[in-house]
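A reminder from the course coordinator: this example appears on the midterm review sheet, so study it carefully.

Given structure:
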Protein backbone atom coordinates (compact mmCIF):
# COMPACT_ATOMS: atom_id res chain seq x y z
CA UNK A 1 0.00 0.00 0.00
CA UNK A 2 1.38 3.44 -0.83
CA UNK A 3 2.34 5.98 1.80
CA UNK A 4 -0.28 8.31 0.29
CA UNK A 5 -3.02 5.86 1.22
CA UNK A 6 -2.23 6.47 4.89
CA UNK A 7 -2.59 10.20 5.11
CA UNK A 8 -2.43 12.05 8.43
CA UNK A 9 -1.91 15.71 9.27
CA UNK A 10 -1.79 18.34 11.96
CA UNK A 11 -3.82 21.53 11.52
CA UNK A 12 -2.89 24.78 13.25
CA UNK A 13 -1.75 28.33 12.78
CA UNK A 14 1.15 28.78 13.15
CA UNK A 15 2.12 25.17 12.54
CA UNK A 16 5.53 25.20 10.81
CA UNK A 17 7.40 24.40 14.03
CA UNK A 18 5.05 21.64 15.19
CA UNK A 19 6.82 18.52 16.44
CA UNK A 20 3.83 16.31 15.57
CA UNK A 21 5.15 15.19 12.15
CA UNK A 22 8.44 14.11 13.70
CA UNK A 23 6.72 12.33 16.59
CA UNK A 24 4.18 10.44 14.47
CA UNK A 25 6.79 9.52 11.86
CA UNK A 26 9.09 8.17 14.58
CA UNK A 27 6.25 6.11 16.10
CA UNK A 28 5.38 4.73 12.66
CA UNK A 29 8.99 3.77 11.90
CA UNK A 30 9.21 2.02 15.25
CA UNK A 31 6.18 -0.13 14.41
CA UNK A 32 6.82 -0.58 10.70
CA UNK A 33 3.78 1.43 9.66
CA UNK A 34 3.95 3.47 6.45
CA UNK A 35 2.27 6.84 6.63
CA UNK A 36 2.42 10.36 5.31
CA UNK A 37 2.05 13.09 7.95
CA UNK A 38 1.82 16.70 6.86
CA UNK A 39 1.34 20.10 8.48
CA UNK A 40 -1.60 22.17 7.28
CA UNK A 41 -1.45 25.87 8.09
CA UNK A 42 -4.91 27.36 7.96
CA UNK A 43 -6.68 30.42 9.37
CA UNK A 44 -9.79 29.94 11.51
CA UNK A 45 -12.03 31.10 8.65
CA UNK A 46 -10.79 28.30 6.40
CA UNK A 47 -10.40 25.55 8.99
CA UNK A 48 -13.67 23.61 8.54
CA UNK A 49 -13.32 23.57 4.72
CA UNK A 50 -9.70 22.48 4.93
CA UNK A 51 -10.58 19.60 7.26
CA UNK A 52 -13.44 18.53 5.02
CA UNK A 53 -11.13 18.56 1.96
CA UNK A 54 -8.51 16.58 3.85
CA UNK A 55 -10.95 13.82 4.76
CA UNK A 56 -12.65 13.87 1.34
CA UNK A 57 -9.20 13.38 -0.22
CA UNK A 58 -8.58 10.25 1.83
CA UNK A 59 -7.13 11.64 5.06
CA UNK A 60 -7.55 9.14 7.87
CA UNK A 61 -6.72 11.18 10.95
CA UNK A 62 -5.83 14.71 11.96
CA UNK A 63 -4.30 16.30 14.99
CA UNK A 64 -5.52 19.78 15.75
CA UNK A 65 -3.75 22.47 17.69
CA UNK A 66 -4.19 26.18 18.43
CA UNK A 67 -6.37 27.96 17.56
CA UNK A 68 -8.68 25.30 16.14
CA UNK A 69 -9.47 22.84 18.94
CA UNK A 70 -12.98 24.13 19.61
CA UNK A 71 -13.78 24.39 15.90
CA UNK A 72 -12.56 20.81 15.49
CA UNK A 73 -15.01 19.69 18.14
CA UNK A 74 -17.82 21.64 16.48
CA UNK A 75 -17.36 20.19 13.00
CA UNK A 76 -17.37 16.53 14.06
CA UNK A 77 -20.48 14.36 13.93
CA UNK A 78 -19.33 12.08 16.75
CA UNK A 79 -17.66 13.05 20.01
CA UNK A 80 -15.93 10.92 22.61
CA UNK A 81 -16.55 11.65 26.28
CA UNK A 82 -13.04 13.08 26.66
CA UNK A 83 -13.78 15.60 23.91
CA UNK A 84 -17.31 16.37 25.05
CA UNK A 85 -16.47 17.33 28.58
CA UNK A 86 -13.69 19.64 27.38
CA UNK A 87 -15.69 21.00 24.43
CA UNK A 88 -12.56 20.81 22.28
CA UNK A 89 -10.75 18.20 20.20
CA UNK A 90 -7.10 17.61 19.34
CA UNK A 91 -7.72 14.38 17.42
CA UNK A 92 -10.08 13.87 14.48
CA UNK A 93 -10.65 10.44 12.99
CA UNK A 94 -12.35 9.49 9.72
CA UNK A 95 -15.24 7.08 10.28
CA UNK A 96 -17.08 5.03 7.68
CA UNK A 97 -19.69 6.96 5.72
CA UNK A 98 -17.68 10.18 5.68
CA UNK A 99 -18.29 10.95 9.35
CA UNK A 100 -15.64 12.50 11.57
CA UNK A 101 -15.09 11.66 15.23
CA UNK A 102 -13.67 14.21 17.69
CA UNK A 103 -11.50 13.08 20.57
CA UNK A 104 -9.22 14.82 23.07
CA UNK A 105 -5.97 13.24 24.29
CA UNK A 106 -4.59 16.21 26.25
CA UNK A 107 -5.86 14.97 29.61
CA UNK A 108 -4.80 11.35 29.13
CA UNK A 109 -1.41 12.46 27.80
CA UNK A 110 -0.86 14.68 30.84
CA UNK A 111 -1.73 11.93 33.30
CA UNK A 112 0.33 9.30 31.53
CA UNK A 113 3.37 11.58 31.51
CA UNK A 114 3.12 12.58 35.14
CA UNK A 115 2.27 9.12 36.50
CA UNK A 116 4.40 6.89 34.27
CA UNK A 117 7.37 9.01 33.14
CA UNK A 118 7.67 11.06 36.32
CA UNK A 119 6.34 8.32 38.62
CA UNK A 120 4.07 10.63 40.59
CA UNK A 121 0.95 9.02 42.04
CA UNK A 122 -1.69 11.72 41.74
CA UNK A 123 -4.00 10.21 44.33
CA UNK A 124 -4.41 12.28 47.46
CA UNK A 125 -2.76 15.44 46.19
CA UNK A 126 -3.99 18.95 46.80
CA UNK A 127 -3.59 20.41 43.34
CA UNK A 128 -3.67 23.99 42.11
CA UNK A 129 -4.44 24.54 38.45
CA UNK A 130 -3.44 27.86 36.88
CA UNK A 131 -5.63 28.69 33.90
CA UNK A 132 -9.07 27.80 32.61
CA UNK A 133 -8.56 27.68 28.83
CA UNK A 134 -8.81 24.63 26.61
CA UNK A 135 -5.68 22.90 27.90
CA UNK A 136 -6.64 23.59 31.51
CA UNK A 137 -10.08 22.07 31.01
CA UNK A 138 -8.62 18.79 29.79
CA UNK A 139 -6.14 18.70 32.66
CA UNK A 140 -8.76 19.54 35.31
CA UNK A 141 -10.92 16.55 34.40
CA UNK A 142 -7.88 14.31 34.15
CA UNK A 143 -6.55 15.32 37.57
CA UNK A 144 -9.89 14.54 39.18
CA UNK A 145 -10.16 11.20 37.34
CA UNK A 146 -6.64 10.37 38.53
CA UNK A 147 -7.70 10.84 42.15
CA UNK A 148 -6.39 14.15 43.44
CA UNK A 149 -7.90 14.93 46.83
CA UNK A 150 -8.72 18.53 45.95
CA UNK A 151 -8.44 20.67 42.86
CA UNK A 152 -8.35 24.45 43.12
CA UNK A 153 -8.63 26.41 39.88
CA UNK A 154 -7.49 30.02 39.50
CA UNK A 155 -7.65 32.09 36.36
CA UNK A 156 -6.95 35.69 35.41
CA UNK A 157 -10.58 35.90 34.28
CA UNK A 158 -12.31 34.32 37.28
CA UNK A 159 -15.57 33.67 35.45
CA UNK A 160 -13.84 31.07 33.26
CA UNK A 161 -12.54 29.24 36.33
CA UNK A 162 -16.01 29.30 37.87
CA UNK A 163 -17.55 27.98 34.65
CA UNK A 164 -15.06 25.10 34.59
CA UNK A 165 -15.70 24.20 38.24
CA UNK A 166 -19.45 24.41 37.63
CA UNK A 167 -19.16 22.10 34.63
CA UNK A 168 -17.18 19.60 36.71
CA UNK A 169 -19.81 19.83 39.44
CA UNK A 170 -17.89 18.32 42.36
CA UNK A 171 -17.95 21.20 44.88
CA UNK A 172 -16.51 19.09 47.69
CA UNK A 173 -13.36 18.39 45.67
CA UNK A 174 -13.10 21.08 43.03
CA UNK A 175 -13.45 24.80 43.63
CA UNK A 176 -12.06 28.15 42.54
CA UNK A 177 -10.13 30.98 44.13
CA UNK A 178 -9.20 34.41 42.83
CA UNK A 179 -5.72 34.64 41.31
CA UNK A 180 -4.79 37.18 43.98
CA UNK A 181 -6.64 35.35 46.75
CA UNK A 182 -4.25 32.46 47.40
CA UNK A 183 -2.49 33.79 50.51
CA UNK A 184 -2.69 31.18 53.25
CA UNK A 185 -3.43 28.30 50.85
CA UNK A 186 -1.00 25.42 50.37
CA UNK A 187 -0.68 22.88 47.56
CA UNK A 188 1.65 19.97 46.90
CA UNK A 189 1.08 20.09 43.13
CA UNK A 190 0.89 23.26 41.02
CA UNK A 191 0.08 22.86 37.32
CA UNK A 192 0.54 25.75 34.91
CA UNK A 193 -1.95 25.61 32.05
CA UNK A 194 -1.83 29.31 31.21
CA UNK A 195 -0.15 30.69 28.12
CA UNK A 196 1.87 33.21 30.18
CA UNK A 197 5.12 31.55 29.10
CA UNK A 198 4.22 32.14 25.45
CA UNK A 199 2.46 35.48 25.56
CA UNK A 200 4.44 37.11 28.37
CA UNK A 201 3.36 38.08 31.86
CA UNK A 202 4.46 37.02 35.29
CA UNK A 203 3.54 34.41 37.87
CA UNK A 204 2.78 36.87 40.62
CA UNK A 205 1.76 34.18 43.09
CA UNK A 206 2.86 33.87 46.73
CA UNK A 207 5.75 31.40 47.08
CA UNK A 208 4.18 30.12 50.29
CA UNK A 209 1.43 28.35 48.34
CA UNK A 210 3.84 25.58 47.34
CA UNK A 211 4.21 23.00 50.08
CA UNK A 212 7.73 21.77 50.99
CA UNK A 213 8.72 19.07 48.49
CA UNK A 214 5.90 20.17 46.22
CA UNK A 215 5.83 19.34 42.52
CA UNK A 216 5.32 21.87 39.71
CA UNK A 217 4.22 20.89 36.21
CA UNK A 218 4.19 23.24 33.23
CA UNK A 219 2.19 22.32 30.14
CA UNK A 220 4.66 24.45 28.17
CA UNK A 221 8.15 23.25 27.23
CA UNK A 222 11.32 24.79 25.85
CA UNK A 223 11.80 28.53 26.33
CA UNK A 224 8.06 28.91 27.03
CA UNK A 225 8.50 27.05 30.32
CA UNK A 226 11.26 29.36 31.61
CA UNK A 227 9.02 31.80 33.47
CA UNK A 228 7.00 29.21 35.39
CA UNK A 229 10.16 27.23 36.11
CA UNK A 230 11.63 30.42 37.55
CA UNK A 231 8.66 30.84 39.90
CA UNK A 232 8.69 27.14 40.85
CA UNK A 233 12.41 27.19 41.61
CA UNK A 234 12.09 30.32 43.71
CA UNK A 235 9.17 28.72 45.57
CA UNK A 236 11.42 25.74 46.37
CA UNK A 237 9.90 23.06 44.18
CA UNK A 238 11.24 19.58 44.80
CA UNK A 239 10.45 18.44 41.27
CA UNK A 240 9.70 20.41 38.12
CA UNK A 241 8.33 18.86 34.92
CA UNK A 242 7.77 20.65 31.65
CA UNK A 243 5.20 19.66 29.03
CA UNK A 244 7.47 17.87 26.55
CA UNK A 245 6.44 14.47 27.89
CA UNK A 246 2.76 15.39 27.70
CA UNK A 247 3.25 16.39 24.07
CA UNK A 248 4.70 12.98 23.25
CA UNK A 249 2.08 11.07 25.27
CA UNK A 250 -0.92 12.90 23.82
CA UNK A 251 0.48 12.12 20.37
CA UNK A 252 0.90 8.46 21.32
CA UNK A 253 -2.74 8.29 22.44
CA UNK A 254 -3.86 9.65 19.06
CA UNK A 255 -1.47 7.29 17.26
CA UNK A 256 -2.84 4.27 19.12
CA UNK A 257 -6.38 5.31 18.32
CA UNK A 258 -5.58 5.45 14.59
CA UNK A 259 -3.24 2.49 14.22
CA UNK A 260 -4.32 0.15 17.01
CA UNK A 261 -0.78 -0.16 18.35
CA UNK A 262 0.89 1.62 21.24
CA UNK A 263 4.31 3.08 20.40
CA UNK A 264 7.20 3.16 22.87
CA UNK A 265 7.31 6.84 23.74
CA UNK A 266 10.61 6.87 25.64
CA UNK A 267 13.01 6.87 22.65
CA UNK A 268 11.04 9.68 20.99
CA UNK A 269 10.93 11.66 24.22
CA UNK A 270 14.67 11.16 24.75
CA UNK A 271 15.42 12.35 21.23
CA UNK A 272 13.34 15.51 21.62
CA UNK A 273 14.75 16.13 25.09
CA UNK A 274 18.17 16.61 23.51
CA UNK A 275 16.74 19.67 21.73
CA UNK A 276 14.52 21.14 24.47
P1 LIG B 1 -5.15 27.04 25.69
O1 LIG B 1 -6.12 26.37 24.77
O2 LIG B 1 -3.71 26.82 25.37
O3 LIG B 1 -5.44 26.75 27.12
P2 LIG B 1 -6.47 29.59 25.90
O4 LIG B 1 -7.79 28.93 25.86
O5 LIG B 1 -6.24 30.85 25.13
O6 LIG B 1 -5.33 28.61 25.41
O7 LIG B 1 -6.09 29.81 27.44
C1 LIG B 1 -4.97 30.54 27.85
C2 LIG B 1 -4.97 30.59 29.38
O8 LIG B 1 -3.86 31.38 29.81
C3 LIG B 1 -6.21 31.25 29.97
O9 LIG B 1 -6.50 30.65 31.21
C4 LIG B 1 -5.74 32.71 30.13
O10 LIG B 1 -6.46 33.45 31.09
P3 LIG B 1 -7.81 34.23 30.67
O11 LIG B 1 -8.90 33.21 30.67
O12 LIG B 1 -7.96 35.27 31.68
O13 LIG B 1 -7.55 34.80 29.27
C5 LIG B 1 -4.33 32.47 30.61
N1 LIG B 1 -3.46 33.64 30.43
C6 LIG B 1 -2.96 34.10 29.26
N2 LIG B 1 -2.17 35.18 29.48
C7 LIG B 1 -2.18 35.41 30.82
C8 LIG B 1 -1.56 36.37 31.68
N3 LIG B 1 -0.76 37.32 31.20
N4 LIG B 1 -1.79 36.28 33.02
C9 LIG B 1 -2.59 35.31 33.52
N5 LIG B 1 -3.21 34.37 32.75
C10 LIG B 1 -3.00 34.41 31.43
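Designed residues:
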Amino acid sequence: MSAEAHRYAVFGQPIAHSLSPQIHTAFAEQLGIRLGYETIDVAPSGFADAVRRFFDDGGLGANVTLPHKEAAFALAQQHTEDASRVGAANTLTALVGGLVQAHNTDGSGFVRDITERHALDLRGHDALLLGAGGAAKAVAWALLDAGVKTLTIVNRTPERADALADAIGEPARCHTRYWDGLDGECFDLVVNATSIGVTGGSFDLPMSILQDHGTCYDLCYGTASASFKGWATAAGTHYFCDGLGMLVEQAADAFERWHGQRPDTDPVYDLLRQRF
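The pocket of 2'-monophosphoadenosine-5'-diphosphate is lined by residues 131-136, 155-157, 160, 193-196, 199, 201 (CB under 6 Å). The chain has two domains: 4-104+251-273, 107-242.
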